[in-house]
User: Fold these one by one.
Assistant:
Number 1:
Amino acid sequence: MNTPEFQGTHLWDRLCWAKENLEGYQSDYRVVYEDSIDECAKILVPDPNWMACAMQGGILPPVWVYHELAKDEAQEDFKKHTRGYLLHETQPVDAMTEEEAIEYLIMKDCPQSVWQNWDSGNKPKMVICRKEQLPSTREWRNAWKITEELTVTDLAA
Amino acid sequence: MAGKIIADTLETGAGADISTSYVVNGSAKAWITYKGTSTNAIMDSLNMSGVVDNGTGDYTMSFTNNMSDGEYSLTDSSERLENNNSPSITGFETTASGSYIHNHWNSGFSASDMFRTYSQATGDLA
């Protein structure tokens, strides 16, 4: 199915169109990351309807739009978004592969301090894995960490 | 065939008028059904991009279309595992325009994962 020409259409209307016309895609990818040494590892779970939008193309705005809105919200005098039009009027991104969609999602929903410097320490701050690679039970969930045995060099190889 | 209705008011059979803005403002702008046990998964949703599992009973839900600010309204409920009769307590920790944190506890106020969690947001979109 072809995506209608959506530039200028409210993003929420596009999402309603996608909900009506696209089948959700359950990705097996999970993103494990650590943004504080005092907290357990966090796990990003992609939304199936969002994945369908990303892989369809022509629906989602570029990820920099979210970064601009986050900058606005970080201002001390922020009250309401005044640049919401960026979500609706910016040219939507083309269809992505599943892997490209996960990269986009990391840049949207993970802290920038994690994905910008994921490989700058002794061990990686972030790992993309398949859900089967995570523990099948949630025992000791609040103590989960990325293994110390994994090095940045391992991931690059 | 594609169609479009343009109307400022709706009228009931009894002749009562209601502004279409009531419908727009009263509609949920996002909702999600999330499985918080075993390997976590999003079962279905609208206007969500993903969930971050922060730890036991602690999840961050992110919007695709941000809300206009952090002052939107959230409602939620949860479903326990079968044969687990202890009550559950849920709440929201913080709200930003692009995401919110959803927490769950058991009757002893210990953080607890739920078999299913449900939440929805109403308010103004960015």
Number 2:
Amino acid sequence: MKSFTEVERLAVPVSKRDHVQGPSNAFLTLVEYGDYECPACGMAHPIVKAVQESLGDRLRFVFRNFPLAQVHPHAEHAAEAAEAAGVRGAFWPMHDVLFENQDALEDEDLARHAAALGLDQAQVLAEIESEAHAKRVRDDFMSGVKSGVNGTPTFFINGVRHDGGYDLPHLLSALEEAAQEK
Amino acid sequence: MNNGANQTESNKKKYDRLYPEGRKAKTLEAGAAAPEFTLKTTPDQAVNLNDFRGQPVVLAFYPADWSPVCGDQMALYNEILPEFQKLGAELLGISVDGVWCHAAFARDRKLHFPLLSDFEPKGGLARTYGVYREADGVSERALFVIDGEGIIRWSHVSPIGVNPGAAGILSALERLQKKENEVAA
């Protein structure tokens, strides 16, 4: 039987395929598995921003998709819209727009968000409809499942699942602690 | 879909307060024969472990419908269901809640797998598998992977307030499939 103290670790290391903010040689890596329609992820979004601001170049942040599509009917398409923006070099702007507009995630909203970022909205919508980015989203999801993601958001700090709270003080102190372990 | 920024921590504390008994029962482990059972899944349907002979079965015991961690855990398994099915496995959720409660919970969360009602005698099945908390009146948050011959191949008991995720289940199922392929070859 697995022991209680066994920690869950990131099964798929951060690589070129990931969406990354911050320097690749940063001391600390924070990976979030999230869902654009999940209210808790929406709440965590400004907290992650504050953490990035506070740690600056010491932190590398990675976002991976974990849409709980059965409970959040818009989450899958929203994730695919972010990926569609990603192939056009606009993943992070789209990521921000989605989290800042969680009540506007219908397909026509996604097209509107794409247009606002200067992307070809018809093309983005066509890619969503043809599921062009579905596999990428599913790969993220499965990498999360294999890493022990157990809800959204789930954070990993330097590859280890963070089981504590993710309000600003908790997240920041967990990161500071991890920095000292290094 | 946690509901609060500090939920993980407060869940642990909340469950420890609500279910203070702690772990006592001796849980069945890998290698043991899985005890047979018949439990109701709807008011007029029952599920028997024997129905699934020849395929792996995942038993997911959880303390109660509606409580936040359970909701997350079952919602997660609901998303991963296609992966369990790819590995030929059947997933069964089990708690001491009655069939009408299960029906409302499953409908609300759009669950696509059966929830079994360990209701009469209360916790009877959980007791057989060594995952019942007598004083708390609920089961542990416990997972069992049973092979096609009815032998337990993996079991895991999580702290009651911690969602165990699905990594352990999937790797146990993958090991089973690998073994089967070896035997076939």
